[in-house]
């Protein structure tokens, strides 16, 4: 593995805290001249979402809202200084989506916000940041986006 990050993945759900994670990821991508891949998960239906609903993630139904979130996040990343920005959309839970994007792109850094990690539900049932940290084969940075 090289000493510099070349592909960085960050997830967004359109929330303020996820945009803070995108901003931090964009700054790191700019510093390393890395490709920033912004990912977003979505569910096809309310039934699919309710089967996997977690309190720490925003539920996105259909890929139209997901594309809007990605467009806004990519614009924000470019304004923050990232030069090479790509987007990826995946159906499923945020954790499944991020893991697919990380593995497919062979990313060497995954950045997520800390939303849900300190809640009681997050400690008992897991949270997106904790779950991706356990599952990821690449470095994971959990940025402080929520008090």
What string, H for helix and E for strand, traces the elements in order? EHEHHEHEHHE
The Cα radius of gyration reads 14 Å
For the largest beta-sheet, the strand count, sense and barrel status come to: 5 strands, parallel
> What is the domain tally?
1
Average predicted local confidence, pLDDT: 84
Amino- and carboxy-terminal Cα gap: 33 Å
Low-confidence stretches: none
Helix and strand content put the structural class at: alpha/beta
Number of helices: 6
Order of strands across the widest beta sheet? 3-2-1-4-5
Described by the principal axes of the CA atoms, the overall outline is globular
The CATH level-2 architecture is identified as: 3-Layer(aba) Sandwich
- DSSP strand content: 15-25%
Please name the CATH topology: Rossmann fold
Protein name: Universal stress protein
Organism: Corynebacterium lowii
Keywords: Cytoplasm
Pfam families: Usp
Task: Identify the notable features of this structure and list them briefly.
single chain; 147 residues; alpha/beta; 5-stranded parallel sheet; globular; UspA; Rossmann-like_a/b/a_fold; Universal_stress_UspA
What this model shows, in words?
Keywords: Cytoplasm. This is Universal stress protein. Residues 5-144 form the UspA domain. The structure is a single chain. With 147 residues, this protein is of the alpha/beta class. It has one domain (7-143): Rossmann fold, CATH 3.40.50. The protein is built from six helices and five strands. It has a five-stranded parallel sheet, with helices on both faces. Strand 1, helix 1 (16-32) and strand 2 form a beta-alpha-beta unit. The chain is globular.
């Amino acid at each position: 593995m090289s000493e510099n990050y070349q592909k960085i993945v960050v997830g967004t759900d359109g929330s303020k805290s996820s945009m803070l994670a995108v901003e931090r990821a964009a700054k790191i991508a700019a510093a390393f001249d890395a490709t920033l891949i912004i990912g977003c998960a979505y569910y096809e239906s309310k039934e699919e979402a309710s089967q996997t609903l977690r309190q720490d993630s925003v539920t996105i139904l259909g890929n139209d809202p997901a594309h809007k979130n990605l467009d806004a996040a990519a614009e924000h990343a470019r304004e923050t200084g990232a030069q090479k920005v790509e987007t990826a959309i995946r159906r499923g839970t945020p954790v499944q989506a991020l893991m697919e994007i990380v593995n497919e792109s062979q990313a060497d850094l995954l950045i997520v916000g800390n939303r849900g990690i300190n809640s009681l539900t997050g400690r008992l049932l897991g949270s997106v940041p904790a779950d991706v940290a356990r599952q990821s084969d690449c470095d994971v940075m959990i940025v402080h986006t929520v008090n």
